[in-house]
């Protein structure tokens, strides 16, 4: 079971998300918080697999809480759950170490898939968020971004580009290992090398490069 901390200042939203996650049969909401400060405290106390955080909360907003959880509870993956998709929020969330960004208005199956993905160490952006980040959030014209991304991935070996494409498709390390017939430790080493050579902090940022470089099928 994937142990989840759910933080949102609206009780009805928490109830709805809890019901959706409970229907999956693979997640267990072990703690709920009504504000960001409480979310950090509960993350430290329960050490969940995933912290699912709303952005706009009292006392401490979800972005600040996410940064604090990433810093102090390294075994917990962080995903943001929000109705807002402005570039500033997405950029700060990803820069702060979040590996998932989900919309409350999204499909329930998308929510479940996102939680499972980040729990497995993969990155997951709601498709609407991913398109927004690629089209609006990174600046510059599309052709310029594509050319820049292709130049960045050109330094990778063929196998590293293959791994990057699968990271961009949202696959976890075990899934990539199965797809490429490699041991998981080898995949982990490839992923670390790719992040280092691309100069990105996490799998979400690597996935954006993969999309822009045309390594991921639309």
> What radius of gyration results from the CA coordinates?
17 Å
Helix content: 55-70%
Tell me the strand order in the biggest sheet: 2-1-3-4-5-6
At the fold tier of CATH, the topology name of the largest domain is: Rossmann fold
CA(first)-CA(last) distance: 31 Å
The CATH architecture classification of the largest domain is 3-Layer(aba) Sandwich
Mean pLDDT across the residues is 86
Which regions have little confidence, pLDDT < 50, spanning 5+ residues? Answer: none
Major sheet: 6 strands, parallel
CATH superfamily of the largest domain: Response regulator
Judging from the principal axes of the Cα atoms, what is the shape?
A: globular
Helix-strand topology string: EHEHEHEHEHEHHHHHH
Strand content: 5-15%
Organism: Streptomyces afghaniensis 772
GO molecular function: DNA binding
Keywords: DNA-binding, Phosphoprotein, Transcription, Transcription regulation
InterPro entries: CheY-like_superfamily, NreC/VraR/RcsB-like_REC, Sig_transdc_resp-reg_C-effctor, Sig_transdc_resp-reg_receiver, Tscrpt_reg_LuxR_C, WalR-like
What does this structure look like?
The protein is an alpha/beta fold and 218 residues long. The protein folds into 2 domains: 2-136, Rossmann fold (3-Layer(aba) Sandwich); 142-213, Arc Repressor Mutant, subunit A (Orthogonal Bundle). 56% of the residues lie in helices and 13% in strands. The protein has 11 helices and 6 strands. It has a 6-stranded parallel sheet, sandwiched between helices. Strand 3 (50-53), helix 3 (62-72) and strand 4 form a beta-alpha-beta unit. The longest helix is centred in the C-terminal third of the chain and has 15 residues, at 184-198. 43% of the residues are buried. One of its GO terms (biological process) is regulation of DNA-templated transcription. InterPro entries: CheY-like_superfamily (IPR011006), NreC/VraR/RcsB-like_REC (IPR058245), Sig_transdc_resp-reg_C-effctor (IPR016032), Sig_transdc_resp-reg_receiver (IPR001789), Tscrpt_reg_LuxR_C (IPR000792), WalR-like (IPR039420). This is Putative transcriptional regulatory protein YfiK. Residues 3-119 form the Response regulatory domain.
């Amino acid at each position: 079971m994937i142990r989840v901390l759910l933080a949102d200042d609206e009780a009805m939203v928490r109830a709805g998300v809890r019901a959706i996650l409970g229907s999956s049969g693979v997640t267990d909401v072990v703690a709920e918080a009504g504000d960001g400060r409480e979310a950090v405290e509960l993350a430290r106390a329960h050490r969940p697999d995933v912290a699912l955080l709303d952005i706009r909360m009292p006392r401490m907003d979800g972005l600040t809480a996410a940064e604090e959880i990433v810093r102090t509870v390294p075994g917990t993956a962080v995903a943001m759950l929000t109705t807002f998709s402005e570039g500033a929020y997405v950029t700060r969330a990803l820069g702060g170490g979040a590996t998932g960004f989900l919309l409350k208005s999204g499909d329930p199956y998308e929510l479940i898939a996102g939680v499972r993905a980040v729990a497995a160490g993969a990155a997951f952006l709601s498709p609407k968020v991913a398109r927004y980040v690629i089209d609006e959030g990174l600046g510059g014209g599309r052709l310029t971004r594509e050319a820049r991304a292709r130049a960045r991935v050109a330094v990778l070996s063929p196998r590293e580009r293959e791994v990057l494409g699968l990271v961009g498709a949202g696959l976890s390390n075990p899934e990539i290992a199965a797809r490429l017939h490699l041991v998981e430790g080898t995949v982990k080493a490839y992923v670390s090398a790719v992040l280092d050579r691309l100069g990105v902090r996490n799998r979400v940022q690597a996935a954006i490069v993969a999309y822009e470089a045309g390594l991921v099928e639309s």
